[in-house]
Amino acid sequence: MGSSSLWDLVQHQRLLLMMLVLGIGGSLQAGFQGSMITYTSVHVKTFINESWLERFGMPIHPESLTLFWASIVSIFSLGGLLGTTASGYMTTKFGKKKCLLGANLIMLSGAIIMGISKVADSFEMILAGRFLCGISTGFCVLLHPQYVGEISPKKLRGFANSTASIFWSLGKVLGQVMGQREFLGNASLWPLLLASHGVTALLQLLTLPFFPESPPHLFLNKGDEEGCLKAMKTLWGRGPHQVELDDLRKQQSALWSTKSVLEVMKDPALRRQLYVLFLLAVTLQLTGIHTIYSYTFEVLQTVGFDNDHIPALSLGISLSELLSAVFCSVIIERFGRRVLLWGGYGLMATVLVGVTLTISLQHSFSWMPYCSLALIFCFVICFGAGPAGAGASVRMEIFDQSSRSSSYVISGVLNWIGFFVIGMVFPFVVERIHQFSFLIFMGTLYVSAVVIYFILPETKGKSILEIREEFDKLNFKKKKQPLGSETSFAGDPVLCTKL
Question: Which of 110, 216, 224, 480 would suit a FRET pair with 317, their CA atoms being 20 to 30 Å apart?
Answer without folding.
Answer: 110
